[in-house]
Amino acid sequence: MVRMGPDVPLLNEYKQEFFWKRFPQTVLGGPRFKLGYCAPPYVYVNQVVLFLTPWLFGGIGTLLCQLQLLQELHGAVLSGMLMFGAAAGVQALAFYAARRSGTVERLGAPNILVDEEEVEFTHCVSPETVRFIAPGKRFGMNVVLHTVLAGVLCGFGTWYVFLGRLTALYGSIGVSLVVFVLSWVTLCIAEYSLIVNTATETATFQAQDIYEITPLTRPLYIFIFIAVDLADRFSDPVPELQLASQILHVLFLFLPLLWALGILPPLDALILWGMEQALVFGLGGSPMSSNLRLLLMFGVSAGVAVCNYFIPSTLGVVLFSISTGFLLSLDLSQVGTLCGGSRAGFRDPGLRRGGSPPPLRSSFGWNLGCRELLLYLSLLLVAMAEAGLLHHFLGSAQSQSFVTGPQAPVSYLLLVLFCLCWALREIQGAYVFGGVFLNPLYPKGMSSVQTFKQRNRGLYIAAALRRVLLYLVSPFAMIAFLSMDTSLQLLHRVSLSVGFTRAFRVVWQSSEDALLQMVVVVLVRLAAGNNILPGWDNLGTGVQLLLVGLLFDRLTQFLAKLKFTLTVLVTSWTEKKQRRQSAGTLLALNASLCPVLLAVVTLSALLSAPLLPLFTLPIFLVGFPRPQRSWPGPVGTACPCPDSIFYQQMSGSLASALRTAFARGSLGSLAPGSHFLGRFQDRMVWIMILERGYGYCTVNIKGLELQETSCHTVEARRVDEVFEAAFERPERLGFTQGFNLHWGNALTPCAALAVRVYSDARNVLSGIIDSHDNLRKLQDDFMKALIWLLLRYCVQKHKGFLWSNDEGSGVGGMKSQSSQLDSSSLTSFGDWSDEDDLFGPQPARRTVALVTAEAQSGHTALQTGASLPGSVEMDSLFENMALSALQPLQPLGLGIGMPAVDKGRSAEFLRESPGSLPHLNFSCPQSEVFNLPTGWRTAPLLPSRLMSLRPLFPEDWFRFTLGRFGPAVQGDTSEDMTKALKEDEALKELHIQVALSCLISLGAESAFTSPSYVYRLYCGDVPWTEGLDWLSSRKELYQLALRAFRFSFKLLFDQASLGPMESSEELFSTLEEYERDWFIGLVTEKGWHDSVLQEKPFLFSLGQDLTMGTYTGRVLSLQEQLVQVGRLNGEGVRGQWANLSWELLYATNDDEERYSIQAHPFMLRNLTVQAADPPLGYPIYSSAPLHFPSL
């Protein structure tokens, strides 16, 4: 984000012109009268004729009926047949035009480029004109289906708006004529979108309409209106049905307005929303985490209600409802574990690739094992026994008063349980009473995790008591209340059957909500006393609970939407950066139309639809109803980047912490569709509740970007302020300090969770890497680290550990930049995947010498020619051919400035074959264990040069390290054997030769003086030296040398920060710690990614800030940290996501600097947009649905 503030345009000029061409097309159902360029008149005439064709055919049928030449039914059939013929003709012309032009048929929804394309028309029925007016259908089946539906729609529509029918409904010819004319406008709009050209709908749910479902949306709503009218025509006179028909005939006139405003959902969203609402409020279930689960659960739950209606015995209904309700409220995804499958809840691909697993996987509830089955079976048997006995002995007992009846004691018990559970839940969070007041019992200060846990111990005891009351006591008390209800005797009515099916299930599915609903019903009965409430009492307890649950849900939504509305209204003026020039006008308009605004909020709450703030301005519309998940695609889609691994690593530990928080009630009342935001350092975690049942909860965890954009920074700073006000408060609070000063913010802090997460520390190395004293010691540390690694290599080889399999050793030096390119080279096309970061940070460059040496791999003779500085770097494009095998270009002066090479002595001096090397005569038989490969002794270096550097070899350190590794190889080795091992001169000479050869080959024979040279060596970008070709051809030795250098730099970093090493023992322990607990390499290396997912305790990387000209060190340390979590206003999130969907899918406003994506400290607008599912949002990590226990 470069530009911020209120002057950012809502739509740029191009998008404004595009919108005002698209919107009239949407209103009229498809005709394009505003093209943006000159078109012949017949283009407009043809569209007008096609638009009015249904009215013409309907008018013929209506006229013949008015003249009494045909009956109403026959007239409707005639109109339908005429429309069917016209629709077939239009489709035939479209098919003919497509064949003549030879173009590919369009894919589903209209293409923006097609809309903007200027068409050259030749005559009124040319292929170009026909394709422009009627593009045709993609699938042949849709051609037939839509053509038949066009005829049926016209026939039934003619019957629906016959003048005789309208006169009978309203008793006035004038009103009937007005309704007749405007109704045909609605029918023409629907017919045009169905058969000629489909307009882009403002209510867009899917990004692409692949299967051409959009043309069916408008006819579907017309068929719903017609169905009500037909029911009124052919049923016995019912005043309510006749009144509904009158109202719907008037509402029928406003259908074009509802379509244009996007209030009516498309067909797919309508089906999913309807099933979800019926499942939750009619059948007692929960919203599901996927469309397939929703469909299956809805079908099974509906089947249970139907079975209850036909079971003759009320006792059988009670037992069947309890058993099915309990089973359907469990986490059915665990059933796969019984068949040998893995835990369904943690099937996140990121976790399978090494993300942090839950630390308590063996604890209760993670898997469906014997303990879980025993508990569930016990609960079910006890519940069925309780319900059966109470219903048999007390269910038919009649009492004149509810207060003296058998339900009275249980009613009072329910009241007590509700008060206790509510109070114990309230004290678990940072705020009480809806986030208004600070909780004085919540721990103050976040100094350390252990201190926080100790201070929180009292709340843990209260949470355990609440858990017992809510999950073990309350369900049985509610079952007892329902089993003794007298309305069970009248069960064989549809309403009562559905009501009790829901009641017995919601007891388990959502015990907390069920307890609240039952308490409300009890309070109403206690308030009524001995009085009878005819309308209320006749409903029965099951339907009463259903209505209370529906009312409570809609009231909660209304209050949340009202708070969101006030936030948008107030901040549009109080926040200077949000105050546009139109802010005063919009505020005055909202104030003057306050009843209309309240009506919009109320309607959106009643429909459970998002409240859409247009462009996030105080212009409120009712968005179309959609499922709680808000998005049609599967959960778990993200836009991954290198930073995604941090969220992937913490997702398992965070899920375990959320499991505990949900069980304790720390995050408040949990309902599917709730959103939470977690914050730790620069990480933002977005948590969404997908579904909930008895003892389990399903969530989706998203990770937001870590890049410090301006908008992201502004909102992140406000999030930190909100959390600090809640968690970093003083020990003693004054009266005014006890209020939540950020109550109007979308975020309400809830709790702090202990999560195993990486803490990221970055340091500027000025004064360390450029210190001559430190650099002089780097050479000695390098030799010691190399000796330690060489001896350790021998130990591992002796024990049977292959070096290539020891990638978990924790240091990136195992795979240098050059070796990485070998493993993922451009020549290995089979290893490519869509997840490869082809345009990410580039590794350090490779010299031609490195490429040549790596290609040879020690199997071909080394070319004696050296690489020219500044020569072009390239990789071999041939699968198995080394670059050295190609005939190189020899520019003039290649040998100038390069070491002279005697070609006649090259075979003897530069390269001794392994067979010609003298055999090593070790004085100690155990020395053979520490022997090095023969090829490592063939460095093309003069012996005199090695002798001159011999003082650099730390003999004391070599003997000390040998003494420590010797017993590890031989077990209980005697002191004499260890002494003989240390005094073996041949072994020492061997390691001296190899170590000094590596020192020379890396150019480290003289003390380091340049930080840039150190950085290049650390990155594996080794400048050309005399022995570099030899060293790079020995890959294992090259990797050991590079790792040794990285170890030595880490030693330099630690000693500069913490002080020098005081003994060899301390140095040895430090190197062991590096090997065991550290990854030391580069952020761009694959080893960094793998180490994070494998949860290496520490990671270190050296980097360079080119803008500041400094070198930086980055340290990641894995530890248990407190992640602060707060609840977001769910209706605010849904409203902003609804606007995002409208703005991008309909208005195509994808400007990265648009107003609706700018930072908003109260609404958290930028973060909310990021958290949306792709392609509209861009979270860098999104987990699959995570199912975990919450008992």
Automatic annotation (TrEMBL):
InterPro entries: Pecanex (IPR039797), Pecanex_C (IPR007735). The chain crosses the membrane at residues 42-64, 76-98, 143-162, 168-190, 248-273, 294-311, 373-394, 459-484, 515-533, 586-607. Keywords: Membrane, Transmembrane, Transmembrane helix. It is found in: Membrane. It is a multi-pass membrane protein. One of its GO terms (cellular component) is membrane. Belongs to the pecanex family. This is Pecanex-like protein. It comes from Amphiprion ocellaris.
